[in-house]
Amino acid sequence: MAAGRRIIKIDIGQKLSSIFNDFKEKELMSKHTTLCLGGPADYFIEVKNDEELILLLKIINEYEIPFYIIGSGSNLLFCDEGFKGIIIKLVDEFEKVEVIDTTLVCGAGSNLTSVVKQSVEHSLSGLEHFIAIPGTVGGAVCGNAGLKDIWIDSVIDTIEIFSYQGKKKILVKKEMDFEYRNSNLKNCIITKVKFVLKKADKNGILNTVSQEIEKRKYSQPLGTKNAGCIFKNPQSSAAGSLIDSLGLKNYSIGNIQISDVHANFFINKGFGSSNDMLLLINFVKEKIKDKFNIELKTEIKIIK
Ligand SMILES: Cc1cc2nc3c(=O)[nH]c(=O)nc-3n(C[C@H](O)[C@H](O)[C@H](O)COP(=O)(O)OP(=O)(O)OC[C@H]3O[C@@H](n4cnc5c(N)ncnc54)[C@H](O)[C@@H]3O)c2cc1C
Predict the structure, then answer these.
(1) pLDDT value for 5
(2) In testing the pocket of ligand 1, which one of 30, 75, 156 has its CB within 8 Å of the most ligand atoms?
């Protein structure tokens, strides 16, 4: 989506503002990312329903405007220069959740933690491990969020998507490909997800929920500005342990610091820049390559 961005030559702002109520110009992406980093996006639009999305995609195609879709920005790094184009966020109709028997039909903009809470209320098991993963259902499905050995694809039944040309399609499970923190749901906008769960004992589910929340109290730098794990775990080891073994906990560049709680979490101490974050990412990559001959790959999405 971000690739091939180009300077917008027409005053598209006027056109967009006349159509979309929730339209902003020069919106700082630091306001929409958990790292609180990122410069201004030319345009930021909250899209409320299918009709608005179709209309927006029509304009995007007509004027060849670059765009990027975000959820809660909990896995994103925008550069200090910002984004030349339109940032899309799904709200309103896309935040609705419906429980039908043992299925949950969720708008892609719905908050994953609230979705998990609803599944617990209905004594439905399958999502409880994901209680503490920040973000939206759309973001979680796109990146196949999860824990070490349990990922969200395990409970997906069908997904509703829009192509970039504005065509709606329902995908069944066999049409999707998932792997560790990745999916083939790339050149599309996910708008709805149906999870299929199992009836189970509510106390058992609640127990798992409490354990997941408790675990993070000691293993993650809660209350800081971060984006979760910066790097994917290489096959044989945990990226955090590798970084820790080099004595890099607390190491910082500018105001970006490697957490002393979890070395795969990089923290914006308050006035950090995306540039310093990129420098720190590259610095750690080089150190790991030199010492272990391992090429770390970023888990966060870097949008340049
Ligand atoms: C404290 C903390 C802890 C975390 N713990 C975990 C963890 O345990 N496990 C884990 O997997 N992750 C974890 N993360 C990372 C992050 O929460 C997940 O990746 C999350 O699923 C991202 O959701 P989001 O809505 O914030 O997506 P964003 O960060 O906004 O976007 C992520 C990607 O999804 C795409 N996307 C978002 N919505 C849509 C859509 N509707 N259609 C198509 N593409 C879309 C975006 O374009 C982008 O490529 C953690 C993050 C933090 C800050």
Answers:
(1) 52
(2) 75
Is 249 inside a domain boundary?
yes
Q: Is the shortest distance between the CB of 69 and ligand 1 below 6 Å? A: yes
Taken in order 285, 287, 289, 293, is the CA torsion positive or negative?
negative
- Residue 295: Cβ within 10 Å count: 9
What would the DSSP string read from start to end of 176-202? --EETTEES--SEEEEEEEEE-EE--H
| CATH number where 37 lies | 3.30.43.10
The pLDDT, as a whole number, for residue 3 is: 46
Structural domain harbouring 193: 96-205
Q: Ligand 1: which atom is nearest the Cα of residue 69?
A: 47
For residue range 100-115, what is the model confidence (pLDDT) as tens digits? 999 999 999 999 999 9
For the CA of 181, the nearest atom of ligand 1:
11
231-281 pLDDT, tens per residue? 999 998 999 999 999 999 999 999 999 999 999 999 999 999 999 999 999
* Number of structural domains found in the chain: 3
Q: What is the pTM of this model?
A: 0.95
CATH code of the domain in which 277 resides: 3.90.78.10
- Establish whether residue 159 lines the binding site of ligand 1, counting it when its CB lies within 6 angstroms of any ligand atom: no
- Cβ of 145 closer than 6 Å to ligand 1, yes or no, is yes
